[in-house]
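Course assignment 3, question 2. Fill in each field.
Student: A.L.
Task: Predict the tertiary structure for the chain below.
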Amino acid sequence: MSIAEIYNLFRKYPKICTDSRHIVADSLFFALKGPNFNGNAYAGEALEKGAAYAIVDEAEYAGADRCLLVEDALKCLQELGTHHRRQSRAKIIALTGSNGKTTTKELISRVLNCKYKTLSTEGNLNNHIGVPLTLLRLRNDTEMAVVEMGANHQGEIGFLSGLAEPDFGYITNFGKAHLEGFGGVEGVIKGKSELYTYLLGAGKHVFFNADDPIQREKLKGYQKKIGFSSSDPDYFQIENLGADPCVRLRAEGRIIETQLSGGYNYPNCAIAVLVGTYFDIPLPDIKEALEGYVPANNRSQIVHKEDLEIILDAYNANPSSMEVALRHLAGIKAPKKIAILGDMFELGAESRKEHQAIADLGADLEFDRVYLVGETFSMIRTGARQFGTYEDLAAFLRSHPIKGPATVLIKASRGMALERVLEFL
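Answer field:
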């Protein structure tokens, strides 16, 4: 069945489902495959639960009524997303980077929504499935879309850019994330820069942080670039006023006081100001949008429990984000400073070295206490208290509770689910 024919069905049934456990009535079910599942086997169940049609790619499942056979269900979903994107008049801003993608997406979206009907990636649906699903949420009245793109190996960002065909793009930063898949820091830079390759090749506009030497070098000589800087007068001036306890910045004489902890969130806020200004959103509206944003979902989130101020930044971690989080903790004023750090994943051969470097930094910054938890953190040489598992840490905190007043940083890779430690604070 052709994409044109599938698209005609999509126009009649514009809801997409890929999980038979969560079927929406009158939707199109795409039978995707994974290492441990075959969506084709659940096509019948999806139809029974209310799906209008099921798109399958194995002939043995195509005999049932309302099962439509295609060569590859995933490729069909991706091509459908691109086809639908081409029918939309919305301006698409693609967003990638090692750290801060989701927070930046939320900030830009809130600012744009002051004036435009804006759509953005839901949650972290930023991969080869999530991006087409985002594109398929575009509606006739959508004016702007912020599409987050994630990757853990070469070629992914280039592929996702080809699916979304963005009009604008922004890379938050280049850091030590997914080193195992990218093959080191240079591989990260190359992989994330695939967004630049697409945008420059298509003659599209690029937003960038002019204070980042890598971004400046990558965009050297390119005319369609729009930058912000805390110091360079050649670019839109957004002054960094510090982050104790939350990010403050000044643009065109107006101070913006956010609810985001960590100086590392300055560029995330600054790009939202730049994008809003570029699209003619009044600065008072930008200020209101940014000041009203309350971080959640374990990202730069401030939690108060009795006399403890907790910086809950446990959604994810890599050596770059871990370092800036520790330096932020070191720079704030607090009676006591305690860091609870969990393992960082997907670092490959660099894992032990990078964990050792973070432990050494924690020692150099002279916090009152540092707790390290996880298989890798438990194997390095350090004077900090180490725990092999989360359960070991929890047992210790039950009998040795942290007493305030104090500021506590909690940070680890997602797989550690270190936010669970809140129960014992």
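Instructor remarks: The radius of gyration is 23 Å. The longest helix spans residues 73-87.
Grade: pending
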